[in-house]
# Entry
Amino acid sequence: MSVENEHTDPTDPAWSALKHFGSEVQIERERLGMSRPELAKEANCGPSLVAKIETGSRVPQLEFAQACDCAFPDSNGRFARLWPLAIRYAYPPWFRPYVELEQKARVVRMFNPMSLSGLVQTREYAEAVLRAGRPTNLENLVMARLERQRILTREEDPARLWLVINEAALRNPVGDAALMRAQLTHLLDLAEAPQHRVQILPKNKVNNLVVSPFGLLSFAEGADVVHVDGFPRGYVLAEPHDVSEAQDAYALLVATAAPPDETAELIKSIVKDCYS
# Structure
């Protein structure tokens, strides 16, 4: 046990950003004489969720933080400012540096051989994938994964997404047919959005080049970085040689995949074949 963790008190609000956020909500709510059901009504959620957020056991959505700023007249936007810190600590420590870079990216390019990227997963698909690992904090993991998707819809300079996916990833069932239909419909919507690109590597084109999921992040300023997914954890690469190799590999995957204008028909065909 490390020295800095030896005397840690898990009930101390300073122990984690989530507990600090929740403690501040509780202090402000009680200062105003507001009950949990009353705050829940303002935040359009249940009282039990308010209780879990206040104890630091549930990750708050941005909308909850904004609702607190509206409900607490003297907060001056404090909870919306605290929220990025709270959500940051919902991710595993090794993944936080990547998430911080992803939030700044202008273009996100990803290759996924056997499953869909977290940036395009529906809630139900994410729950099914994450549940397989039997985590004790499933809801927090799902919430954190879905929050990453805000980079695609933010009002100021939303990120552009370019996906290359093995056809096997779309034919690999996660959950039941209804879940997969909803997931592929969501992917189809992204594929047809003008700012994004989705390409599929057909099953008759064997991909021997890359077997691990990886991605490239591009920024308004500065060099690209690479993220390689793996077990038990992924890692970020920024060395020019590594980035150059990843760029070349991605370019070959793009050239091998079916063109973007064929993606919609391919997805519809897979839904008909596998999930109708």
In short: Residues 1-11 have pLDDT under 50 and may be disordered. The two ends are 53 Å apart (CA to CA). The chain is about 50% helix and 10% strand.
